[in-house]
What we know:
The structure is a single chain. By secondary structure, the chain is of the alpha/beta class. The protein has two domains: 5-53, Helicase, Ruva Protein, domain 3 (Orthogonal Bundle), CATH 1.10.8; 57-193, Dna Topoisomerase Vi A Subunit, Chain: A, domain 2. Helices cover 42% and strands 12% of the residues. The protein has helices at 5-14, 22-34, 37-53, 70-74, 86-95, 123-126, 143-156, 181-189; strands at 55-56, 63-64, 79-83, 101-104, 134-137, 162-165, 192-193. The strands form two sheets. It has a five-stranded mixed β-sheet with strand order 4-3-5-6-7. A two-stranded antiparallel ribbon has the order 1-2. α1 (5-14) crosses α2 and α5 (86-95) crosses α8 (181-189). The longest helix is centred in the N-terminal third of the chain and has 17 residues, at 37-53. It starts with a helix and ends with a strand. 26% of the residues are buried. The structure holds zinc ion. Zinc ion (ZN) binds at residues 57, 59-60, 62, 68-69, 71-72.
Amino acid sequence: MRDIKCVAALASRFSMLPGVGKKTALRYAYAVIDMSERDVDAFCEALKDVKQNVKLCKVCGNFTEDDVCEICKARSAKQICVVAYPKDVIAVENTGAFDGAYHVLHGTLSPMNNRTPDDLNIKSLLARLNGVEEVIIATNPDVEGEATAVYLARLIKPMGVKVTRIAQGISMGSELEYADSITLTQALGRRTAL
Ligand SMILES: [Zn+2]
């Protein structure tokens, strides 16, 4: 039996989400049929709400609904943990081992993908270094993450700010967001100067 056209269309939307395969997407689409009209409306509203209201924090570049994110409002920026993506902020926050501020680059340097320093959120990092004691670079321990760390260290160290790199507790090529909290806590604790 072929899937009903509009159900298949919805499934193809769900399959755009990370970690959702074709089978799961179809299950989700059929589940919508059983939802109340009210729930479906709320679902649509929630989708639009996220798209319309989430923006980047003016200070750190993390996702926020305000001009400045909750972390920037509440925390000291004596230590700034630099990560590639907002999801990495969540990974570090989940360890509970860091109480400083963050800076989100929105990518890593990649000559292969034509991603240069101008494409990353670097200027605003340099602009907020006054009074900062340490910049901890927590990009993924892969080639691009390392290149980005070295590049940032070269820029920041001459400004008199200590630059450190999280330890290679997470194995080379693995991603921060998939590292378990204990491993990531250890990587933070055993960071080394760049
Ligand atoms: Zn912020």
